[in-house]
Every structure is written in structure tokens, then in C-alpha cells.
């Protein structure tokens, strides 16, 4: 779907999402306070990507980030360069009883090249493999 549509009050996604479960680190950007070393998050918050699309990513975080804030997301790849993207958090909601949050984020700089991030998405199994 290449345009965002509204149908009978339902808001449909602008971009198709692909499931992707990999760990990463989220760091506050801009006016947000930085985490102190005592918090255990001074180097960023360990998060997990749930999905990715051309417009952004879905993340599970153990720490609350305010809606509208910006953060830097990084995936470390040993032996290769890290994959990073600047995100704007568009949706923040409780995820589970353990206190985790779902963060729906769009890429803050859509002109940035996110090829390295999309390269992490596994290829769907071919229909011939059945």
C-alpha cells in the first residue's frame, strides 16, 4: 500500500511491515535528559525490534520514551559496521504486565539510506520450497 487510507474509521498503515526480531540499543536525542550511569542505561536502552517498514520500525523497550521524542537506534554487528537510524516516536503504549512499552517509530530522516537495516530482514521462504 503506497498511500495512507482511512476506511470506515480504521487507519491503515502507509507501508507494509516485515517481522524482524533482533536486539538493538535506543538512545535519547535532542531535549530528552540522558540516562545517568546509576540507571544502568548510560550507554542506551537494550530494546528489541518487532518489525520494520520503509517508514519506520516497531520496538519493545523496558523504558518509557515520550511520544514525539527523537532517539537514535543502533544495531551492533560484530565484525561489520553498526546500523543506525534516527527515529521519531509516534506511538507509545504499554506492551505487557512486566512493564515493557511498544514504541512505534518513523524514520526522522526519510532521505537517509536504511539499506543496511532492510538487509537484516530475512527473505520470505519461496513457494518452491514447499
Give a short overview.
The chain is mainly beta and 130 residues long.
What does this structure look like?
- This protein has 130 residues and is mainly beta.
- The chain is 3% helix and 42% strand.
- The protein contains one helix and eight strands, in the order E-E-E-E-E-E-E-E-H.
- Strand 7 (83-94) and strand 8 form a beta hairpin.
- The chain is globular, with a radius of gyration of 16 Å.
- The model is unreliable at 1-7 (pLDDT under 50).
- Biggest β-sheet, characterized? 6 strands, antiparallel, barrel
The spatial strand order of the largest sheet comes to 3-4-5-8-7-6
Structural category is: mainly beta
- Give the low-pLDDT segments: 1-7
Specify the number of helices.
Answer: 1
Q: What is the total tally of β strands?
A: 8
Amino- and carboxy-terminal Cα gap: 27 Å
Q: How much helix is in the residues? A: under 10%
Rounded radius of gyration (Å): 16 Å
Share of β-strand residues: 35-45%
Question: Could you state the order of secondary-structure elements as H and E?
Answer: EEEEEEEEH
Instruction: Estimate the global geometry from the Cα principal axes.
Output: globular
The overall average pLDDT, rounded, is: 76
Write the layout of secondary structure elements.
Elements: E1 6-7, E2 10-11, E3 18-29, E4 45-52, E5 56-61, E6 70-75, E7 83-94, E8 101-107, H1 115-118
Antiparallel strand pairs: 1-2, 3-4, 3-6, 4-5, 5-8, 6-7, 7-8
Name some characteristics of this structure.
130 residues; mainly beta; six-stranded antiparallel barrel; disordered N terminus
